[in-house]
Amino acid sequence: LPTPPARLPYVPHVPPMALLGKVTATTFALEWPRCVFDGHADASDAVWLAVAFANASATFRNPRCRADVPPYKQLPTARSYMTLETAAAAYSCSARSPPVLRVGGDTACRDQGRQDPCNGPLPSPGPYRVKFLLMGCRGPKAETRWSEPILLRRAISPGTIDPAPTRRGSDVVVIASILASLGAVLATAVLGALGAKVWGSLCHQDLGTDAFTRRSYRTHHIPPALPQPLPPGCRCSPPGLCCSAPRPPAPCP
Fold this sequence. Notes:
One of its GO terms (cellular component) is membrane. By secondary structure, this protein is α+β, with helices and mostly antiparallel strands.
């Protein structure tokens, strides 16, 4: 009987960092398992990824050789398949490898043969479980644990999209109206305060200019008018009253 593969403590998982398209409707990303197979792999060994529906991972059986690898096209019936055949050296600690690998990223798998390690799009949201399997010329040599269930995003059918805008409840409309009114009142108050301040500043400047003008005008001195001399022969009778013409002399007695 073949020797059972070594059980490795590593658990495959979706990378925790932010990643564009980390999980989509047909694909998901996995963290690259570096340094996991060191000490178990030879130069001629290969690492496979086993993909199974979460409820079928317990019944998955490791293939004895490459010819027994379950292909991608049998996933709907066999509930599992293997893909991403990679040289074991790519997972070593010294290898310069990408941070993630993507499951389901090959859209041309439908035209490939049965023996090709196809990495085609996943047909449903799942959930799925995955594990890495190290295989040599005599069969499996080491395997990781199964991952936690991975659920893909659900695509929205175009027929279920309502083209009409969503109607909001009356409470939401009332609250939105109140908030809009409060915003308008607040804006009016702020503009009024700013206008009053500007107007007061302009008035203050005008008053200062008038005062300066008035003070400058008061500095001019106009002397009082002098009394005009009386014409010759003008006598006053009674005293203090001036006549306008000389009075003729009185006749002799």
